[in-house]
């Protein structure tokens, strides 16, 4: 190797990236920026609305202040209904999600077909938003909390099922083998060998999902599926802004409380 | 010859019992009883119109029959809505990622003074608490109907999500590097460039990509309150009982989310 080649291969000044890497990196940056600019410019945005946005926002803020505190007394029933929808939906989810997770985990499913069915249920459940499920179930069961409970359940199955299926795939196979070798049935293997291993995951994700569900059930009323969303939606539509601010405060308090409860329960479990 | 049972000479061994998560039986059974009582109480207080619910099964059958087969004939409307949702998600993720950097740095307790920290954390908590649809309603009131309100909604939730993750990553950094760079007399921007960014950048990119995939999911729903995207088309088709078109939209959303998730997983694996 000539000194010249050597100098080219081992330069005096250390650089983190080779010129090729630098070029590639800048190409990436350029591509990402181009995509972002295209997205903004191709959208059908009425920029004209931006002109008076600050006036609109200020107007809304002055109408919302002060909150009509006395209105809070009427919010107890819808608030409790919101919590019930979230909780009952979560309870129903646990009952359905475990069998589905069992199908969707590679090591416990029966064959490739059942595995695909399990996976498809999980993906479809997660892709459709709770509120869209709400639309569907309001059409089925009519407006009211029943539609909300079903909506919560159908969205949560995918969430809980995916995490539990992943936990099942990562269990200690030695335990399962040991139990199988005692001549147990398939159901007993599931009940004694697998379930206890994933139980902490089930508890943890259930409580976590419950706290997300409280937030979701606060808007289910927008499509008529019960809870405080109904009150909020009608207050907004009738421009009762001082009531809107009370409702928002109540939602804030409930969501914060549920997040606190869920975090402290999860800390005790894990 | 008959097999005789082995005798251990220790009498009957204690019955084997499963290990319980909650060991105290009183607490365990109390909890189970509490759950039962709650179920009865909540089902009793909810105002459910059981007569209407009972009609649900034939209705569901009717809806499913009307949904099949999915109607893709208005594909141009479907395509435009889907494209708008994707654009909303892309724009919100990009700008959210950029704006989350200052917010995330301000939310890291080990870098900034207490008042700044409290303001940033306050913003994060506030915007995390309210569901996207509530935020979207307010943006629709302020900016009018259309995708701008949707982009801003997704932007707010992206900023709060990415910056929360970023702030936590910065706080969890080992303090050694921070002290070492500080000891060389580095200014605050230098500290960020040479100490913070190399440690948190890979995870920051991963979280941002994850957020892109979450934004695609959420962009399909903000349209329900008029903030643009495929959700608006979906809500309209539902209110017109146009169920075969609804199913076409739902299938499109499911495949879109599936592609988005696949892409996000692929990129995150590349980053690792």
- Terminal CA distance of chain A: 60 Å
- SSE run of chain B: HHHHHHHHHHH
User: How would you sum up the major sheet of chain A?
Assistant: none
Strand content of chain A: under 5%
Helical element count of chain B?
11
- Helix/strand structural class of chain A: mainly alpha
Gyration radius of chain A (Cα, Å) is: 27 Å
Low-confidence stretches of chain B: none
Oligomer class: heterodimer
Concise account of the structure shown:
The complex is a heterodimer of chains A (270) and B (272). Chain A is an all-alpha fold.
List the keywords.
heterodimer, A: 270 residues, mainly alpha, 11 helices, 76% helix, flat, B: 272 residues, 75% helix, extended
Structure description:
The complex is a heterodimer of chains A (270) and B (272). Chain A is mostly helical and 270 residues long. Chain A is 76% helix and 0% strand. Chain A contains eleven helices and no strands. In chain A, helix 4 (76-104) packs parallel to helix 7 (145-169) and helix 8 (173-181) packs antiparallel against helix 9 (186-217). Chain A is flat. In chain B, 75% of the residues lie in helices and 0% in strands. Chain B starts with 24 loop residues before the first helix and ends with a helix. The longest helix of chain B is centred in the first third of the chain and has 32 residues, at 75-106. Chain B contains eleven helices and no strands. Chain B is mostly helical and 272 residues long. Chain B has helices at residues 25-45, 50-54, 56-67, 75-106, 114-129, 132-143, 147-171, 175-183, 188-219, 230-239, 243-271. The chains are: A mainly alpha (270), B mainly alpha (272).
